[in-house]
Design goal:
Blueprint: E1 4-10, E2 30-36, E3 49-55, E4 64-71, E5 86-91, E6 94-103, H1 109-114
Length: about 120
């Protein structure tokens, strides 16, 4: 699955979000339903897609992350993850994070170091 880099800003509980952000590391990765902010149509949509979110600890703060994100399903609309596009993460009907795609697909760190 193609991964992209994204900025993730978690919404604190007092603003209607999570009590605290997920760990964002380890296996399985945190996954949540995505809603693109520029998408038309009703919410929730007839077909919703989930994104896996993996925090890059070196570039993250508790409520503001730089993360690698990718769709969980192979048949998801991968081309939707384009630079500059904004999206929200939902847990049920609650928006828990605001996000923005920073960069297109990239090589995993181990492969990049070897190349």
């Amino acid at each position: 699955m193609d991964k992209v880099r994204a900025a993730v800003e978690w919404i604190p509980r007092e603003q209607g979000g999570r009590r605290e952000p997920p760990l964002g590391v380890g296996s399985p990765p945190y996954a949540s339903v995505v809603r693109f902010t520029d998408a038309a149509g009703p919410w929730p949509p007839p077909t919703a897609w989930s994104l896996a979110v993996e925090k890059d600890e070196a570039f993250s703060e508790p409520y503001r992350w730089i993360a690698d994100v990718h769709f969980v399903a192979d048949q998801a609309p991968h081309s939707s993850l384009r630079p500059g596009r904004q999206f929200d993460l939902y847990e049920g009907g609650r928006c828990v994070a605001h996000c923005r795609v920073l960069a297109e697909s990239f090589a995993p760190r181990a492969e990049a170091a070897a190349g």
